[in-house]
Amino acid sequence: MELITELMDQAQIERSLTRIAHEIIERDSSSPNVCLVGIKRRGIPLAQKLAENIKKYTSVELPVGEVDISLYRDDLTELSETPKTTNIILPENIQDYVVILVDDVIYTGRTIRAAIDAVFSHGRPKAIQLAVLIDRGHR
Prior knowledge:
Blueprint: H1 10-28, E1 34-39, H2 43-58, E2 64-67, E3 88-89, E4 98-106, H3 110-120, E5 127-135
Parallel strand pairs: 1-2, 1-4, 4-5
Antiparallel strand pairs: 2-3
Helix pairs in contact: 1-2
């Protein structure tokens, strides 16, 4: 029998997303080019919710992209020497953007590293930041 532990209830998730949205507003208010990039699967709806919260508090509509890192994972290089995917949606030219990667959990950092590799395959942003709900702290 599988034991399921609830780490956050809906109210805690909403509170955390509100807090993260305010942190993004405070940290990146001086940069006109900020985009949120949700990591497929659970990061995409979180990025969309963060964009909604930011728009609610500032009237600024941030672009929301997405990345599927399944073929960028280093443990999948046995499939090909240079696995590639086109499952990434970003603004046309990310060179002047602050890209905020959004995911639900960070554990070892491998997913984030793969997402950074995917972003770099489309250009070099001004900066890359990370927004996650839960840090499992195994780095």
